[in-house]
Amino acid sequence: MKRITVFCASSFGTDKIYEEQAVLVGKTLAEQNIELVYGGANVGLMGAVADGALQAGGKVIGVLPDFLRSKEIAHLGLTELILVESMHERKTKMSDLCDGVIALPGGFGTLEELFEMLTWAQLGLHKKPIAILNINGFYDALITLLETMTEKGLLKEVNQKMLLVSDNIDDLLYQMKNYTAPTVGKWIEKKEV
């Protein structure tokens, strides 16, 4: 893997460990010569993951909608800042640039980005590993919900297992590097889209 997209909050949250782990994620990516792609902001966990990578000598590509740049949250120390027109264009660009995705703690935006990548994978539009760094059990309730979806017959087990989970970044990266996408599609093939 040459590049990983990280989705995470634009705030720090209530637990200091979220910020500490975001910095560690950035540092670990840099140490493993994996470029970071993220949302381009200098605030919250987004800024922390970027700073962690930059401080360790890593390359960081930010993708930021132009309307957010005007709110003065653009990180000015990045290797590259790509400005786009919309949130949708941002997600598409972040997907195009990466070989895999990690979600750190976040809110609606983080979940929306994570689930769009999972949906695209379920539909066979990509075969990239998608992972959650489950810091301090942040995503436990979500993992339980996915298990319920599978038990109730609304999500195939093979698709549930597409989501890689760990509370340790080194273990998560190991899982991602060894990931094989399911061969079972939902209903369509990429060439039909």
UniProtKB/TrEMBL annotation:
Alphabetical keyword list: Cytokinin biosynthesis, Hydrolase
Gene3D superfamilies: 3.40.50.450
InterPro entries referenced in this protein's UniProt entry, alphabetically: LOG (IPR005269), LOG_fam (IPR031100)
The keyword Translocase belongs to this UniProt entry's keyword annotation: no
E.C. code: 3.2.2.n1
Pfam family, one: Lysine_decarbox
EC category: hydrolase
Swiss-Prot/TrEMBL catalytic activity: AMP + H2O = D-ribose 5-phosphate + adenine
Similarity annotation: Belongs to the LOG family.
Name of protein: Cytokinin riboside 5'-monophosphate phosphoribohydrolase
